[in-house]
Amino acid sequence: MDRGKRASNIAARNSKIYMDLKDIIRESALPFLPAKSLFRFRGVCRDWKLQIASPFFAHTQSLAFRAVSGLFYQPLNHLPSFISLDPNSYGVPDPSLKFLPVPVHIRSSSNGLLCCQGITGDKAYYICNPVTRQWKKLPIPSANHGKDPSVVLVYEPSLLDFEAVYRLICAFPSSDFDDATEFEIYSSKEGSWRTSGEICFARWKVNSSLGVHVNGVVYWQGNQGKIHAFDLAKERFQVLSASHGLNACLGLINGKLSLAYASGRTLLVKVLANAHQNTMQMTSCETMWADKYHIHLNSAVFGGEAYENAKVLCLHDDWVLIEIGKALYTYDLKTGNVKETCKAPEYGARTYHEIMDVVAPKKNEIMDVVK
């Protein structure tokens, strides 16, 4: 009798341990998964379905899952497409963004959100989440941003701020001053555009190429090998020098502005070490850019392609996207692993935007759900 009672107690304890493990997986493991996997796991059980559908879980997942899941690219005069870095785990339901009310050009991306601009009509900006297909049309800017605007979307999820707040910053040619650049900022918190009082009268122009946001500062590529920096807190403009030519790609490594470019058979990656080097004494030994990686592009690794013509398309933390010949490769900067992602599109000029599989923001925060 006692032996039977002890066996029953052991079974009860094992059942409790199993339930605790299930709760641990649901509460602690699910937020670290990409959206595509989460949508699959909604069919596991009712508890998981309710957990994944809750707004708090969406907020938590946007903080926990920070890996890049793929890249949107848009050839000239064509619909957007999506390159998944792992098709089994990452994906979006509508890569061409046909859920938006008009055809669009993708202008910028930030932590799971895209900024798009309508091709027709009033050419308004749209902020959308390609995973949930939620979107919002922004008010028409007060300034003329031009045909190919230099805009950067800034969306930084915060643990203590449940409301999803984002900003859109555009550098545009001034209509009041010749050869000057002004800045207009949209805030989702205010729901309106505002032109900054800062005006850049430098002869260096902001290119419409992709800009990046790093620690409260927006950076754009400029002409003559310059990089343009706009501090969002101080609303001050600064020009940084860089001896990298015009083919460098701006990105982020360990929270610092970085750039990568191919020179012959070598891939070079540099990190911004001192943004104020140009204001220091001429005898100072401080350098603005510090070498991070110096990598030989082995033709055997890249399938015998013409690696002398390699071009860096994206840079994010531990990897770069490189176009060599007719193929796109992801190169892991830490391990040296190379993976051929896909064949390069045969169309004309195109841009690439990295994206994360996040399920936030949710309804009633910043998006209007498509009806």
From TrEMBL:
Q: Cite the F-box associated beta-propeller type domain residue spans from the record.
A: 109-242
UniProt xrefs under InterPro entries: At3g26010-like, F-box-assoc_dom_typ1, F-box-assoc_interact_dom, F-box-like_dom_sf, Gal_Oxase/kelch_b-propeller
User: What is the recorded name of this protein?
Assistant: F-box associated beta-propeller type 1 domain-containing protein
One Pfam family of this protein, by short name? Answer: FBA_1
Q: Which PANTHER family match?
A: F-BOX DOMAIN-CONTAINING PROTEIN, F-BOX PROTEIN INTERACTION DOMAIN PROTEIN-RELATED
Superkingdom field: Eukaryota
Read off the SUPFAM superfamilies from this record: F-box domain, Galactose oxidase, central domain
